[in-house]
Design a protein that fits this description.
The complex is a heterotrimer of chains A (about 325), B (about 325) and C (about 280). By secondary structure, chain A is an alpha/beta fold. Chain A contains 9 helices and 12 strands. Chain A folds into 2 domains: about 200 residues, 3-Layer(aba) Sandwich (Rossmann fold); about 60 residues, no CATH class. Chain A has an 8-stranded mixed beta sheet with strand order 6-7-8-3-9-10-12-11, with helices on both faces. In chain A, strands 2-1-4-5 form a 4-stranded antiparallel beta sheet. Chain B is mainly alpha-helical and about 325 residues long. Chain B is about 75% helix and about 0% strand. In chain B, α5 packs antiparallel against α10. Chain C has a single domain, classed as Orthogonal Bundle (MetI-like fold). Chain C has 11 helices and no strands. Chain C is flat and about 75 Å long. The chains are: A alpha/beta (about 325), B mainly alpha (about 325), C mainly alpha (about 280). Chains in contact: A-B, B-C. The interface between B and C is large, with 53 and 44 residues.
């Protein structure tokens, strides 16, 4: 039984030039304890998809479809249920956690605020929990009364992670948690996340445009392009032997330290305009293997191996034996 | 906030004060006509007394001596700011201090109300940006903002005092009431101060509400607001506990900066309502060419504003933990 | 590509209701000032009717205490009021921009010194300062212009300095320096063009503040009462209109000042929005 079940989710933004479909009929499942890496170029819809799970989209967005967490449909939730569900069932570590915290209040008070919004425990208890949470991410307890500007970027990131775990949610969404950090701190954060994964059994959705960070941490990876899923499968298969031309190009673009020196491989062309996307397969203008069917017919997401699905006309459907 | 910050701001305020002193000294001496003519008006005083005053103020001395005497006068206790013509021989400072409390009360209370009104209207419109309500309220408040203080005051005076008789047409209190104990005077004083205060508030609040609105709009786009919403806080909690709290910081600075503007407005309003504060006094001084009084008024008003700005700086540092 | 960008820009200009309304309002008053003799058969001081007569077909805004037509006074008065406004704006903008530009560009002790003085003027209540200066200079419209210019330039200086500081750090300034442009050239070719929008937006606001300021100084009696401007109208109206029921005499000049202010704010806000891509399309 999946923890999170997304069915036919579409998100449309009202813009001056017309409706923009940031996410186009996406379906996916997430099991308990799984870590899903959500990868793709800027503007492919990964953040929109993840934010819709918390219904944190701006008012100009229209959601259709189903998002079910533990059986409840998030899309239909009324305000009260929504507020209850937020942070308790699903929480968020935003991109650029430099700004995740209100600059005029202490870190501790903001963690406490989240706790007290859902549980009726005393202030002292809440602060106790906050301090413990901070120490579990490697920040000493006496820093709880510090202000955000007194923390380094990496510390703020870790504090944001601690805050996200404060109510022991089933799912934590991390939006580009390593992007703004240098590699040393990146590694620290990834190690921390792996440790937390094991300890809390939380599911993670890890959004990134940098596939290489997903290697150690994700159990499954979904590659998105132009609002649709191009390929989704186990980490080993998607990273090791990607099938969709887009995923293959993305992975090939990752520079490696070992092996022969070669020129960096990039994907030619630009991401498409989502107000009037390309016909047929959205990747066709940039695909090196394009043929006639690609221009006319949109490929459906089909099972191409036991653990992986992809949307490409080149690939054969997998027969279960 | 460390002590060094307070010291720095205090020094800054003091330097500003010194510059004001210099300006105050320089102005009559660079203006057309001789200083004697201003400080010892021969039309009012007989020639001999005029000469005595001239000697007393050292007006025939070289400039540096005059400046020295002037500074000595200011830095004694009580400060000597000269003698008023209109109320001769009462010292200027005495005259001013007699009227100052009325203005302070008027300006003080109305600044508080104006800021509060501006803050709430700003939060209200900022959180509804782009909506019809926002456009209506913002446009209306901008229009009221363009009204000159004294014109708005005259209109209010006309409609509510002269036409409808709901409020008195001037002064600060009814004579008979001043004979009563102070706690019974409060109602009467408030009744007299209502229209002047209302004028000040209406004419000035949009300055605050527009800034608050813009700041709220900016703050609401910050990441920490997204996180606060994600934490399951109600819209009101997110708005007031987080966005508004941050938006207050530039407001505090504005309140300090705007004081000069409100004091200027209060001057005009006092004239319209014959309110016996320093504004009305300034008007009388202009009419009777009472230059020493005018100079003294300028100095006192400037000092008041400098002190208030200093206070605003301190409040700001208390509110923003990032100030060290 | 450039042509379509410019076409889009003009489309936005025309569709920008705020700007159109603002310019319209100001244009009405400018027209009033320019065409004064053609718009009214009466002179502003000419006695043409019974004193204190209410608005009528003959006298759209009634008459004053001497029997002169108030509408004519408004029309002729617009000349003086607007002229004062423009004159003050020109002087204050030139002075303030120079100070702000030099301070922001060269920084260091010059900046400190200039800004310290500017700040003093900013903090001080402008009306008392204006009154003191005007009291010594004697009542006349020139005095008012001079005095208002003195109280208006500091704000311009502050604003220009801020913007200069940030422009200084932009990549295109560095690029100009790398090419070998000297300070003067950078100031004139790089910084000033980018300041123009800000200067324009502020100048418009300065005009309206000066119009209101002129009215205030006239009201106190520091203007020349024999000159006809909206301010002097209010000066006379204050004494005579209140107790003679001539509300139109007070309302009319004030509304004109408000409308000019409104037009100016609309234009100023539109200028900022037009040229600031960040604020666009929200």
């Amino acid at each position: 039984m999946a923890l999170l079940s997304i069915r036919e989710l579409s998100v449309e933004y009202r813009t001056e030039r017309g409706p923009l479909r940031a996410v186009d009929t996406v379906s996916l499942d997430l099991k308990e304890g799984e870590t899903l890496g959500l990868a793709g170029e800027s503007g492919c819809g990964k953040s929109t998809l993840a934010f819709s799970i918390l219904r944190l989209l701006p008012p100009s967005a229209r959601i259709s479809g189903r998002i079910e967490l533990d059986g409840e449909n998030v899309v239909d939730m009324d305000d009260r249920t929504l507020r209850n569900y937020r942070w308790k069932s699903v929480s968020l570590v935003p991109q650029g956690s430099m700004n995740a915290f209100d600059p005029v209040r202490t870190i501790g008070s903001q963690i406490v605020e989240g706790i007290k919004a859902h549980e009726s425990i005393s202030k002292a208890e809440a602060w106790q929990r906050a301090r413990k949470l901070l120490s579990s991410v490697g920040i000493s307890e006496d820093r709880a009364k510090s202000f955000p500007f007194q923390f380094s970027g990496g510390m703020r990131q870790r504090a944001a992670i601690a805050m996200a775990l404060s109510l022991n949610p089933k799912l934590v969404i991390l939006d580009e948690p390593t992007t703004a950090l240098d590699v040393v701190v990146q590694k620290q954060i990834l190690t921390l996340l792996r440790h937390l994964q094991r300890e809390y059994q939380t599911s993670f959705i890890f959004i990134t445009h940098d596939l290489s960070v997903l290697a150690d941490i994700a159990t499954r990876i979904a590659v998105m392009y132009a609002g649709k899923i191009a390929e989704i499968g186990s980490e080993t298969e998607v990273l090791g032997s990607p099938q969709h031309p887009y995923s293959r190009a993305l992975i090939a673009a990752i520079p490696t330290i070992d092996g022969e020196k070669s020129a960096a491989k990039s994907i030619p062309g630009l991401p498409p305009d989502l107000i009037s996307p390309p016909s047929g397969c959205r990747f066709h203008p940039r695909c090196p293997f394009v043929f006639e069917k690609c221009i006319n017919v949109e490929p459906a997401l089909t099972q191409i191996s036991r653990e992986t699905q992809a949307a490409c006309h080149l690939l054969k459907a997998w027969e279960a034996k | 906030m460390q002590r060094s910050y307070i010291v720095r701001r205090a020094i800054y305020a003091f330097v500003t004060f010194l510059i004001v002193l210099v300006i105050n000294f320089v102005i009559p001496r660079v203006m057309p006509g001789s200083p004697v003519q201003y400080f010892a008006n021969p039309h009012i005083l007989p020639a001999l007394e005029a000469k005595i005053l001239a000697v007393r103020f050292g007006l025939n001395e070289p400039l540096w001596t005059q400046f020295y005497l002037y500074m000595v006068g200011v830095f004694q206790w009580p400060p000597d700011l000269g003698v008023s013509y209109m109320f001769y021989p009462t010292p200027v400072l005495t005259v001013i201090l007699g009227r100052l409390p009325w203005t302070l009360m008027l300006v003080g209370i109305s600044t508080v109300i104006t800021a509060a009104l501006g803050i709430f209207v700003g939060i209200w419109t900022g959180s509804r940006r782009g909506s019809a309500a926002d456009t209506a309220v913002t446009s209306a408040s901008m229009f009221v903002w363009t009204m000159p203080f004294f014109w708005l005051g005259t209109i209010l005076l006309w409609v509510f005092a002269i036409d409808l008789h709901w409020f008195p047409a001037g002064t600060a209190e009814t004579y008979e009431v001043t004979l009563l104990p102070w706690y019974q005077q409060i109602g009467d004083i408030a009744w007299h101060a209502f229209l002047p205060g209302l004028t000040l508030t209406l004419a000035a609040f949009a300055g605050y509400s527009l800034l608050m609105r813009n700041t709220i709009v900016e703050e609401l786009q910050q990441d920490y607001i997204v996180v606060a919403t994600a934490k399951g806080l109600t819209r009101r909690a997110v708005l007031f506990r987080h966005a508004a709290r941050n938006a207050m910081l530039p407001m505090i600075t504005l309140i300090g900066l705007n004081l000069g503007y409100i004091v200027s407005g209060a001057l005009l309003v006092e004239i319209v309502f014959s309110y016996p504060g320093v504004g009305f006094l300034t008007y009388q001084a202009v009419l009777s060419h009472d230059y020493p009084l005018l100079q003294g008024l300028f100095l006192v008003l400037s000092v008041t504003v400098i002190i208030a700005n200093f206070a605003a700086d301190i409040v700001y540092a208390l509110a923003d933990p990032r100030i060290k | 590509m450039l042509k379509s960008a410019r076409a889009a820009w003009f489309r936005r200009l025309r569709g920008n209701r705020r700007l159109v309304v603002g310019i319209g309002i100001i244009a009405v008053f400018l027209g009033m000032a320019a065409l004064a003799p053609y718009l009214t058969p009466y002179g502003p001081h000419q006695v043409v009717g019974r004193p204190y007569s209410p608005p009528s077909l003959q006298h759209w805004l009634g008459t004053d205490n001497l029997g002169a037509d108030i509408m004519s006074q408004i029309i002729y008065g617009s000349r003086v009021s607007l002229m004062v406004g423009f004159a003050v704006a020109v002087v204050a903008t030139l002075l303030g921009t120079t100070v702000g530009l030099l301070a922001g560009f060269y920084r260091g002790p010059a900046d400190e010194g200039l800004m310290r003085i500017t700040d003093v003027f900013l903090i001080l209540p402008s009306l008392p300062l204006a009154i003191i200066l005007a009291a010594y200079l004697g009542p006349s419209e020139t005095t008012i212009i001079e005095v208002l210019a003195v109280t208006s330039w500091p704000l311009v200086a502050r604003v220009v300095r801020s913007q200069t500081l940030s422009l200084r750090e932009r990549p295109f300034t560095d690029a100009a320096r790398v090419i070998g442009a000297g300070n003067r050239r950078i100031m004139f070719r790089v910084i000033i063009p980018n300041l123009l929008t800000l200067i324009a937006a502020n100048a418009v606001l300065t005009i309206t503040a000066a119009v209101a300021g002129e009215a205030g100084l006239d009201f106190i009696g520091l203007g020349n009462p024999s000159v006809v401007s909206w301010g002097t109208m209010l000066y006379w109206a204050e004494t005579y209109a209140l107790f003679n029921g001539a509300w139109w005499w007070i309302v009319a000049p004030g509304i004109c000042i408000c409308l000019v202010g409104l037009g100016a704010v609309l234009i100023s806000v539109s200028i900022e929005n037009l040229f600031n891509p960040r604020l666009r399309g929200r």
